[in-house]
Amino acid sequence: MKTTDDLYNGRRFDGRRSPQEQALRWPGGAGLAISFVLNIEEGAELSVADGDASNEGVHEVSHRIDGVPDYCMATHFEYGARAGYARVAQRFIDAGLPLTLNICGRALERTPWVADDVRTHAWEPCGHGWTWTSPAGRSEVHEAGDIARTAAVITRLCGRPPSGWHDKSSRTPATRRLLRAHGGFIYDSDDYGDDLPFLLDPRDGRPPHVVLPYGFDTNDMRFLDRGGFVRADDFSGYVIDAIEALRPEARHAPRMLTIGLHTRIIGRPGRIAGLDRVIRHLADCADAVVMTREAIAHHWLG
């Protein structure tokens, strides 16, 4: 039977925080930390043409073709790497904002210009799996191999190893142990249950590990959900509402907000204005600071 510690890693599930956590301020005295995450998955999606057993079934529509190559799906993802990436990246370059990239290893091998930008602009590369698939149900040997292979290609192409990890969908019961055994990882984002980071209890003499909760609501993937975002204003309006809800809370205790982006989604011409509006809004929020997830984890560790 699972215990509370197994499920929640020793977190207080009643929402109470230590005095140190309540008093924490982000750099510059800000109360709210904003984390932009650009997912680099194009080229790592399931594809029969790449030798995978099936094709990815969700792009602008939900439709699966199995057993043969799906060129409709493939070129939807290709759009993200070819056109969407440059459109999104330029926004962060022009604004001088820090950016975390959730990078799938197979995708990075096929889009090495992403690694060039990581080095040029000091963006953070975070491991996102070898392929854009969940490790749930895989063996520990398979999962450990994917972690090592992904970390190796990021290190080789970006010039530095990843310090964070984020799986598609669910992690496995072994994921955090495997990350800590691999070495070099100080955080993961395989959690959706809070507005703040939390620490795993150190065990066996290992250094502390930070968990940075992610968000699926302030995320452009809702453009692909029925009943989700349709126009650029839907995305910006929702994200700005979240920012404005957290700002007064953050006067009393720290808060964190993750904004998830995808090159093939927000990078479309009809959607990119939503990101522009969010960036402009943040320019007027002196009580909020944009940080990479790595910087947030280091700051939380003190």
TrEMBL record:
<dbReference type="InterPro" id="IPR011330">
    <property type="entry name" value="Glyco_hydro/deAcase_b/a-brl"/>
</dbReference>
<feature type="region of interest" description="Disordered">
    <location>
        <begin position="1"/>
        <end position="20"/>
    </location>
</feature>
<feature type="compositionally biased region" description="Basic and acidic residues">
    <location>
        <begin position="1"/>
        <end position="19"/>
    </location>
</feature>
<protein>
    <submittedName>
        <fullName>Chitin deacetylase</fullName>
    </submittedName>
</protein>
